[in-house]
Design goal:
about 350 residues, mainly alpha, 12 helices, about 75% helix
Length: about 350
């Protein structure tokens, strides 16, 4: 299922790249919109790369290296295997995206399945050069391969809280940049299409800093939640929940932070759309891009959660052998989930509020 999600995300990102190229080829005089569409494609590609990294870490070959070294599967071969397996899944998705694009553009000699303009394609989409399309499309599997190779073997910092001050600094810097840009921009607006065209110039740069800061601080927040669970004289329930959450804080916190910033940014964009002429930044292409990001981010979070749960299987088995009841283990999972929800639900709301502060009205 995780490779199917990766293929779907890669196919969606590839189709967005082809659509951006089609718009640039159909209207070469409007280079600004073409660049904006390509910039929008960077978000789905980044989300797909994050999903690829999670899928690579979930691969059985990414298990602790002591056993793998015994069969001569060292770090280099682990990276090569991870890059190959995830690239194959991404390549399948991008090839299907290319075939769909060519079919809708009428380049395959068969009638189109449906009107390509419904997906945001220009009327003259068939003018896209095949060589340029293949070159641009190769960005997706190459990015996926690099993300997978760098993710295996995972090297996490000893303490997830080490990046918390840097994340807070980025959030403050982003808020300052957005506020200053909104104050001094006057009537100047960001050179973006759709509902984002009304955003004051310079504000998107501040948004980027703030969102990066939230993601950087998220592992520290998850570890802080685990330490709060073990404050004082905790019982067996809080102790088990806190210790297990502390061990998983780095990976799980980063994924939940990505989910938080994605939902916060989406809520702000949807709010702009409902107040303006549309509900997505670039019409159908914007909706497709948002769907790709949601699938990739959600898939990465679920894959990481499943991987961490599998990694805890030996500990869970030991606890059961020591007499821990299934009810206690279920309550431990609920306490962990409740602690994370208590941290990241307000974080999502505060992030959305922070993004909306420099907007007019």
């Amino acid at each position: 299922m995780r490779r199917l999600a990766l293929a779907c995300a890669a196919g969606g990102a590839g189709f967005l790249l082809l659509a951006a190229l089609a718009h640039a080829a159909a209207a070469p005089e409007n280079a600004t919109q073409g660049l904006a569409l390509l910039a929008w494609c960077a978000l789905p590609i980044a989300a797909t790369a994050q999903l690829a990294a999670s899928v690579a870490r979930a691969d059985p070959v990414s298990e602790p290296r002591s056993a793998l070294d015994a069969v001569s599967l060292g770090a280099a071969r682990q990276r090569a295997h991870a890059a190959l397996s995830t690239t194959l899944a991404a390549a399948v998705g991008t090839v299907l995206a290319l075939l769909l694009f060519l079919q809708l553009a009428g380049s395959l000699g068969s009638p189109a399945l449906f009107d390509g303009t419904a997906l945001g394609l220009p009327v003259e989409a068939g003018r896209v050069p095949l060589g340029g399309a293949l070159t641009l499309l190769a960005l997706v599997p190459v990015t996926v391969a690099l993300a997978a190779a760098l993710a295996v073997p995972g090297r996490e910092s000893p303490s997830a809280t080490a990046a918390l001050p840097w994340g807070a600094a980025l959030i403050a810097a982003g808020a300052a940049v957005s506020g200053y840009a909104a104050a001094v921009s006057g009537d100047a607006e960001a050179n973006l299409p759709g509902v984002l065209a009304g955003v004051p110039s310079g504000v998107p740069a501040g948004w980027g800093l703030s969102l990066a800061g939230v993601m950087l601080a998220s592992p520290g927040l998850a570890q802080a939640a685990s330490r709060l669970l073990t404050l004082g004289s905790p019982g067996a329930l809080r102790l088990l929940a806190g210790r297990s959450l502390q061990k998983d804080a780095a990976r799980l916190g980063m994924q939940l932070g990505t989910v938080a910033v994605t939902l916060a940014a989406l809520s702000v964009v949807v709010g702009l759309g409902t107040g303006g002429a549309g509900t997505a930044p670039f019409g159908a292409l914007g909706a497709l891009g948002a769907a790709v990001v949601l699938v990739a981010v959600g898939g990465a979070a679920l894959t990481t959660a499943a991987t961490l749960r599998t990694a805890r299987t030996p500990v869970t088995r030991t606890l059961r052998e020591l007499g821990a009841s299934p009810r206690l283990l279920r309550r431990t999972r609920l306490v962990r989930a409740g602690a994370l929800f208590a941290v990241f639900a307000p974080l999502t709301w505060l992030t959305a509020l922070l993004l909306a502060l420099p907007l007019p009205g």
